[in-house]
C-alpha cells in the first residue's frame, strides 16, 4: 500500500482505481509477487520541477511553475503530453503520468510513461505571450528530455502551435533536430493523423464495443452520441461519429454545455468546424451560442455539463474534456437515458463513484438498463499511439501516408480492445450474463506488461 504520501488527491484516485481492480481480480492470487511490483511502479523514477519566468506584453515579469514527471521507462523513453492549465500541480501530473504508463503499454509500442506541464493559463494570452512562455519553459525542460530519453507532446492547452515554439527552442539550444516532441507540424516532422488520433481512436474503440455487445449486429449508424469538451479530442471524435452515421447531440467547454434543442438532429461538420475555429482563438462556446445559427438549434447551459441536459435518448457517451467530469449521479442519469456505452476520451474522465455505478451495470442481456464502460487508458490510447508512430517515422526519416497511419491506428485500437477483453476473461471470474470488465482487463494487461519488463530490468524481485 501507499504510505507517507503527501496530499495528492488526483494521484491517489488514479492509484486506487488501478490497485482496486488488481486486488479484485485473481492476479495477486496467481502472482503474489506482483504486489511488490505495484509498490515500485507507483513511485515516479524522477520528478523535475522548475521556475518559468517570462515577460508579458506589458513588459511585466510573470512567474509560473514547470514540471516533468518521468514516471516509468521500462518499455521505452518517457512519453506523455504537457498540460498548460491553471489547475496543474504535482498531484494532477502524477495521476496523468501514472495513467500514461499503462496506456502506453496497451498501445503495444515501446514507450514509457511521463507527463509534464505548467500552471500557465493560455486563455487570454496573446500569441507573443504564448511564444515567450514556451521558449522560457523549454529553456529549462530541454536539459531533461531527448528523443531517446523523454518525448513530450500536447495535452490540454498545448496544441501544434505550442509544440512548434518549444521544438524551435529545443533545436536552438541543443543544436539538434530530433524527434524530441510529437504532435509536430506536418511539414517539419509531424505525423499525418496525429491531430485526429485521440478522437478517431476513441470512436474506433467504441466501434468494437458496439460490435461485440450486439453480436456484430450494430454500429455507430443511428446512434445518438453525447460528447463533452470541444478541444482536439472532442472535435475529432464528433467528426468521426458523423462520418460513421451517428448523431452528435452535445459538446461543451469549461464554461458550459451546448446541447441540441429537441430530440432530433445532430451537430453538423460545419458547426464543429466553426467551434474548432473559435477554440484556436482561445474563445468560449458561449460567444457562439448567442449567434442566430446556433441559438435556433441549440440550448446553451452556462456552468453545466451535458450529461443531464440532453433531450431524448443517449446511446453513447464520450467524456472528452478533463478529469472527473462524470459523477455518480450523472452516471445513473446516463443509464436512465438509455446510454449503453461510455468511453473516456479524457484521462480519468469518470469519478470512482461513476465507475462503481458503471461496473455494477455490465448486464449483457438485451433490454437491460446496462452500460459498458471503457477507461481512458484504453479508449484514448490512440493519441499517444500515433505519437509513437511519429517517433518511428522520425527515427527512420520517413513520412507515412494518411491511409498508412490510419490503418495502423485502427489496428492498435482493435488490439487494445481485444487485449482488455481477453485479460478480463482470464483474471476476473465471469458472472453469467455480464460483459467483461474493460477497466479491470485493461488495467491488468497494462500493469503486467510493465511489471514483467521491470522485473527483467532488476527494478523489483
Ligand atoms: N496527452 C495525450 C494523452 O493523454 C497524448 C500524449 C502523447 O502523445 O505523448 O495520452
TrEMBL record:
<dbReference type="InterPro" id="IPR033524">
    <property type="entry name" value="Glu/Leu/Phe/Val_DH_AS"/>
</dbReference>
<feature type="binding site">
    <location>
        <position position="79"/>
    </location>
    <ligand>
        <name>substrate</name>
    </ligand>
</feature>
<dbReference type="Pfam" id="PF00208">
    <property type="entry name" value="ELFV_dehydrog"/>
</dbReference>
<dbReference type="GO" id="GO:0000166">
    <property type="term" value="F:nucleotide binding"/>
</dbReference>
<feature type="binding site">
    <location>
        <position position="103"/>
    </location>
    <ligand>
        <name>substrate</name>
    </ligand>
</feature>
<dbReference type="InterPro" id="IPR046346">
    <property type="entry name" value="Aminoacid_DH-like_N_sf"/>
</dbReference>
<dbReference type="InterPro" id="IPR006096">
    <property type="entry name" value="Glu/Leu/Phe/Val/Trp_DH_C"/>
</dbReference>
<dbReference type="GO" id="GO:0006537">
    <property type="term" value="P:glutamate biosynthetic process"/>
</dbReference>
<comment type="similarity">
    <text>Belongs to the Glu/Leu/Phe/Val dehydrogenases family.</text>
</comment>
<comment type="subunit">
    <text>Homohexamer.</text>
</comment>
<keyword id="KW-0520">NAD</keyword>
<feature type="site" description="Important for catalysis">
    <location>
        <position position="155"/>
    </location>
</feature>
<keyword id="KW-0560">Oxidoreductase</keyword>
<feature type="binding site">
    <location>
        <position position="154"/>
    </location>
    <ligand>
        <name>substrate</name>
    </ligand>
</feature>
<feature type="binding site">
    <location>
        <position position="387"/>
    </location>
    <ligand>
        <name>substrate</name>
    </ligand>
</feature>
<feature type="binding site">
    <location>
        <position position="100"/>
    </location>
    <ligand>
        <name>substrate</name>
    </ligand>
</feature>
<dbReference type="Pfam" id="PF02812">
    <property type="entry name" value="ELFV_dehydrog_N"/>
</dbReference>
<dbReference type="InterPro" id="IPR036291">
    <property type="entry name" value="NAD(P)-bd_dom_sf"/>
</dbReference>
<dbReference type="InterPro" id="IPR006095">
    <property type="entry name" value="Glu/Leu/Phe/Val/Trp_DH"/>
</dbReference>
<dbReference type="InterPro" id="IPR033922">
    <property type="entry name" value="NAD_bind_Glu_DH"/>
</dbReference>
<dbReference type="GO" id="GO:0004354">
    <property type="term" value="F:glutamate dehydrogenase (NADP+) activity"/>
</dbReference>
<protein>
    <recommendedName>
        <fullName>Glutamate dehydrogenase</fullName>
    </recommendedName>
</protein>
<keyword id="KW-0521">NADP</keyword>
<feature type="active site" description="Proton donor">
    <location>
        <position position="115"/>
    </location>
</feature>
<feature type="domain" description="Glutamate/phenylalanine/leucine/valine/L-tryptophan dehydrogenase C-terminal">
    <location>
        <begin position="191"/>
        <end position="458"/>
    </location>
</feature>
<keyword id="KW-0547">Nucleotide-binding</keyword>
<feature type="binding site">
    <location>
        <position position="198"/>
    </location>
    <ligand>
        <name>NAD(+)</name>
    </ligand>
</feature>
<dbReference type="GO" id="GO:0005829">
    <property type="term" value="C:cytosol"/>
</dbReference>
<dbReference type="InterPro" id="IPR006097">
    <property type="entry name" value="Glu/Leu/Phe/Val/Trp_DH_dimer"/>
</dbReference>
<dbReference type="InterPro" id="IPR050724">
    <property type="entry name" value="Glu_Leu_Phe_Val_DH"/>
</dbReference>
<dbReference type="InterPro" id="IPR014362">
    <property type="entry name" value="Glu_DH"/>
</dbReference>
<feature type="binding site">
    <location>
        <position position="232"/>
    </location>
    <ligand>
        <name>NAD(+)</name>
    </ligand>
</feature>
